[in-house]
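Re: the request from the purification team.
They wanted to know what the chain is likely to look like in 3D before they choose a buffer screen. I agreed to run a prediction and write the result into the notebook, where they can find it.
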Amino acid sequence: MFDSITLILVFMAFLVLGRFFYHRNLEKLSMVIVGILVFTIGVWSGKSLSSNMFLIIFSAFLYLSCLFTITLISGIIIHRSFSLSSRKRSGFSITILFMVLLGWITSFFIPEHFSIFLSMLIRLELYVLIALIALSVSRYFTKETIFSNGREAVKAVSESFLNGLFTGLVFWFITGTDLRVSIAIAWGMGWYSFTGPFIGLQAGPIMGMLAFLVNLLREQLTFLVVPLIKEPRLSLLSIGGATTMDNTLPVYSMVYGKEFSMTALIHGAIHTLLVPLILTIIFTI
């Protein structure tokens, strides 16, 4: 079983250390580690995916469609607002997708018994990534920023977990996927580099790759829909999940203004703190 408690302790420890050892290049190093980790995941899951590739991709799009529909409908009901934006922008992480593809291709040249080593390597890479992310987010935690923008962020976090719960239940009902896995995929909150490996180590490489794809595409969906659908704002913030403090932060700043950037940042930071803890609880009950 993956040592999730140790993972959380590592994160908390480096969150404290980040107050003293932060460096501006940590984000760049984190992206390098993410690329390496994604490649390793691709190699690890490649052999298992050969006969299930279409099913996994179809399931990922089905899951994401459920998540977006539930989030939008619940947001309209809760906030009683809906409006389209006049600005149209989008982005896509070509590098990440390339690393996945490269990993799948490489898997054809890797012996079967190499899978054990790959599993250990993924664990090590996860620990390194968690430490780097903790060092990076530590600088955002001050009393002023937490209290001034925290209220809206907490509301959006609550929405994202509630919508994730409903999405997990719907996907479980439609496909018969293990309920814990189905809910955990949504509660990965777009943190594909953590959620994919974590669920993979808990439920096998097929479910791990499904979790990875859903959360990777969730980030890309954020880039696509936020500039197009301006309201309900907090519901659209909840779609970004953990990514709103880094990768998708610019799109929220562009659509909603600079003053909303801190809300998005705190929202993402809260998810980054909660996701490892909540996924650990899901697989230990």
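For the purification team: DSSP finds twelve helices and two strands in the chain.
Please add any questions underneath this entry.
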